[in-house]
Write a structure and sequence with these properties.
Layout lengths: L1 H30 L6 H12 L7 H14 L1 H10 L1 H23 L6 H29 L9 H6 L5 H23 L5 H31 L4 H5 L3 H22 L6 H17 L5 E4 L5 E3 L7 H30 L4
Helix pairs in contact: 1-2, 1-3, 1-6, 1-8, 1-13, 3-4, 5-6, 6-8, 8-9, 8-12, 11-12
Membrane topology: Multi-pass membrane protein
Keywords: Cell membrane, Membrane, Transmembrane, Transmembrane helix
GO molecular function, one term: electron transfer activity
C-alpha cells in the first residue's frame, strides 16, 4: 500500500504543477502583456480557467495531506525550515484567488478593479516563484536540522542561488504552459498570434533560467548533472522533452493546435522525471550529505493502509466528476 500512497503523492505534485501552474502562468502572461491588450487577455483567460481554477488546488491539498499523514518527518522538516517560502506561497494563492473573484464578479465596478488586477498579476508571479523555490530547496542540500541560529535554520535553507534559479525556471515554465493552453481558447487569429509570441518569450526565458539552474547547481554542489545527464532514464527524459518541444513548435508553425496542450504537458512531465528519477526515493537533501527518504520516514502501517484505501476509493468518486467538469467547461461557446 505504501507504493500506492507514494504514487498518489507523485501524481498530485505533477498535476498541481501542470494545472495549477498553468493557472499561475495566466497571471504571469497578463503581467507581461501590454496595457492595450490586457482586457482581451483577461477575457480569454476567464473562459479557460474561470470555471476550474479552484478545483486545481485539490492536488495541492492531496499532496499536503499525504505528507502530513504518511510522511510526518518530511512534513515537519518542510514546515519548520521552509515555513517562510511556504507562507509566501500560501498568501499568494489566497491573494490571487480573492483578486480573481472580486475583479470578475464584483457587483460594483469601481477604482478597486485597479487594485484587484495588480494583486492578481503579482501574486501569480510570486506564487509560481516560491513554488519553485520550495522545490529547489528540498534538492539544494541547504536544509540544516542542526542549525543553531535563525539565518541558517530558516533563511539560507531556501535563500540561495540554486533555489532562486529553480524558482525563476518554474515561473517561466508556468508562463509557457499558460500561453500554450490559451492558444486553443483564442477565437481570432490575432489573439492566437499574441499567445504564440508569449509562448516563444516564455520558452526562451525557460531556456535561460534552465541554464542558470545548472550553473548554480555546479556552484553549490548539487549533483543535478549526475541526475539528468549521467543517468539513463534522466537523459532519455531530457531527449523526449526536447523532441516534444521541437514537434510542438513545428505544429504551431503549421497552424495545428489540437495536441499542443498534450505536448506541453508531456514536456514538463519529462523535465520533472529527469530531475527526480535519480534522486528518488530521497525527498529532502540535508546539509552535510544526509537525506530524508520516502521509504525510511513512512508512517505506521495501519495509517498508511487507511490512507491508501481512502485515496483509491476517493479517486473513483472524484476523478470522473472532475474530468466531466473540465470537459463541460472546455466546450466552445455557441
Amino acid at each position: 500500500m505504501e507504493q500506492i500512497v507514494i504514487a498518489f503523492l507523485c501524481l498530485a505534485i505533477l498535476l498541481y504543477f501542470l494545472l495549477g501552474g498553468a493557472d499561475f502562468g495566466a497571471g504571469i502572461i497578463e503581467l507581461f502583456t501590454s496595457t492595450k491588450n490586457r482586457s482581451r487577455t483577461r477575457k480569454t483567460m476567464y473562459h479557460a480557467i474561470g470555471p476550474v481554477w479552484e478545483a486545481n488546488h485539490m492536488w495541492l491539498i492531496i499532496a499536503i495531506v499525504i505528507l502530513f499523514v504518511a510522511f510526518p518527518r518530511i512534513y515537519t522538516t518542510m514546515s519548520v525550515h521552509l515555513h517562510i517560502p511556504l507562507a509566501v506561497m500560501l498568501i499568494g494563492i489566497i491573494a490571487r484567488g480573492t483578486a480573481f473573484v472580486f475583479r470578475h464578479y464584483d457587483a460594483v465596478k469601481d477604482d478597486m478593479q485597479w487594485l484587484y488586477n495588480r494583486i492578481f498579476r503579482y501574486s501569480s508571479f510570486l506564487t509560481a516563484l516560491f513554488l519553485g523555490i520550495i522545490a529547489g530547496s528540498v534538492l539544494s542540500g541547504k536544509v540544516d536540522p542542526d542549525a543553531t541560529n535563525f539565518a541558517d535554520a530558516y533563511i539560507f535553507s531556501w535563500f540561495n542561488w540554486f533555489s532562486i534559479s529553480v524558482g525563476l525556471f518554474t515561473t517561466a515554465l508556468c508562463g509557457f504552459l499558460a500561453a500554450i493552453y490559451l492558444i486553443g481558447e483564442c477565437k481570432t487569429e490575432e489573439d492566437q498570434k499574441r499567445f504564440i509570441k508569449k509562448a516563444k518569450y516564455m520558452n526562451f526565458a525557460a531556456v535561460v533560467f534552465g541554464a542558470m539552474v545548472f550553473f548554480s547547481a555546479a556552484m553549490e554542489d548539487v549533483p543535478l548533472m549526475n541526475w539528468v545527464v549521467y543517468n539513463k532514464v534522466g537523459l532519455m527524459a531530457v531527449i523526449l522533452a526536447s523532441l516534444s518541444l521541437v514537434l510542438l513548435w513545428y505544429l504551431l508553425l503549421k497552424g495545428r493546435t489540437q495536441i499542443l496542450r498534450i505536448l506541453a504537458g508531456f514536456q514538463v512531465t519529462m523535465i520533472l522525471v529527469a530531475i527526480s528519477y535519480a534522486h528518488f526515493p530521497n525527498f529532502i537533501r540535508l546539509k552535510g550529505g544526509g537525506v530524508i527518504s520516502l521509504y525510511n520516514t513512512i508512517g505506521p502501517e495501519k495509517t498508511v493502509q487507511s490512507l491508501g484505501w481512502a485515496l483509491v476509493l476517493g479517486s473513483f468518486l472524484i476523478l470522473p466528476f472532475l474530468g466531466y467538469l473540465f470537459y463541460k467547461f472546455q466546450q466552445k461557446e455557441e
